[in-house]
Amino acid sequence: MVKIVTQNLFNVIYFITVNYYSTVLITQLINSLPGAIDLNYKLLIINNSPDDKSIENLACQNILIIDAGCNLGFGSACNLGLKWIYTQDTNALVWIINPDAYFAEKSKFDIKAFFTLYPEISILGTIIHTPSNEVWFAGGRFFQKTGSLKSVDLITNCDADYVECDWVSGCSLIIQFRNFSECPLFDPEYFLYYEDFDFCKSYTQKGYKVAVTKIFSVIHQPSSITNRYTRKKIFYSTYSYLITLQRYTNTFVFTLRLIRLIGFAVIFIFIKPKIAIGKIQAVFTYWRDHSQLHIPEKTLLQYLKNQIN
């Protein structure tokens, strides 16, 4: 149930970021935050790499480090922060931001005024630029009939303060707690990728408003972390995409997309083997976790080998 509270109850802005061997990047993010005089904030760093002791050097009065104990993935790590904040303040504004993102110099944070003016927005995405000032994200659309998720520039040439959309990027996502009757959480089945889409889609289906704005913006260095691990990146993005197709499309669309995916994997095995292996492993894992037939992975692997040969 959506509850809308109109009075200004915001005292502290909470930021959440997830560390995975990203101390240098998070230091850049911290240095880009405005001083305490300009903004009363707390930053929660969820540490998904417990052996990365360098992150502990960033702890201070307004920066809290929560040790996840292991690599929980993005959504589950954010959930640790969301739950902690919810126990402190059920009316909080929570800004989830990537560790490889940061704010431009002299950024303005009229965030309290924005949500006082627009209390109906529950989940707000911001425009995101690359370091070269190109638009990286400005709104998301989902096309159920084809299973296509697209980043579409909905806000750059718009005079409105915000535009409603289907989903916003978890790279820079603001949640207005006071509209929720319980703590909003990401689905832990998503380890990495598409968890932001699922988060937005699941809550819009419950009546919550999702929108994007250009009033607030961040700078993002795309894939500066995930590009270190190509095969894992492809594995998680493919696996999460299959979950998303299964949930939000139909059997026909899912089957077509799966056949297309396997076809590309077979082609890439000769051109880009890391990408091919990541896709194939994702199909195996998805089949194992979700198929009622429970066909052994060795059987699937033999099938794919036959296709290649």
From TrEMBL:
UniProt record similarity statement: Belongs to the glycosyltransferase 2 family.
Gene source species: Dulcicalothrix desertica PCC 7102
Listed transmembrane segments: 252-271
Any one GO MF annotation of this record: glycosyltransferase activity
Source organism, top-level taxon: Bacteria
The protein's name: Glycosyl transferase
Record InterPro entries: Nucleotide-diphossugar_trans
Biochemical pathway: Cell wall biogenesis; cell wall polysaccharide biosynthesis
Keyword list, A-Z: Glycosyltransferase, Membrane, Transferase, Transmembrane, Transmembrane helix
